[in-house]
Sequence to fold (167 residues):
Amino acid sequence: MNDAHLHMVVNHFPIIGTIFGLGILIAGIFMKHTVIKNVAYILFVVAAIFAAVSMSTGEGAEEIAEKLPSVTDQIIHEHEEMAEKLAFVLYALGAISLLGLYLNFKNHTKAAAVSYIALVVAIIGVFFGKQTGTTGGEVRHTEIRANTSSTTAVDQNGAAAEEGDED
Fold:
């Protein structure tokens, strides 16, 4: 397993874990159930750990990907910039979640406030996760790049015109 393969294996969990954690945290806040909030906090901590692993495998993946056709330095750079923002948010969310776990176990009065802070940071994390996932997908999936939609339409129209000419 090379760095690119390892990166692809681990890079989905920070995004998916944050999305699931956000949903679970919302449920925990709405139901006023500490155990459910703790599950969300644990997911956020695990997402932060996976973000660190994903960041550590990113350089090796970049070395491999930049040699592939249709992969430009600009595409990789955009993904790297978004991934750094996401990682920062997830590290903060992980720290907030550890604090939330501690305060919940101590039945501290500030535990509810921390859950709302975690909620806001998780929403930001989901936003950056979407951006990071999209820019990461664009590295290899040329069909989702913004500048290929117009050429795809032209190709499809051209193909359709050729098929029509044959009849």
Remarks:
- The first helix runs from residue 3 to 10.
- The two ends are 50 Å apart (CA to CA).
- Helices lie at 3-10, 12-31, 34-65, 73-105, 111-140, 149-166.
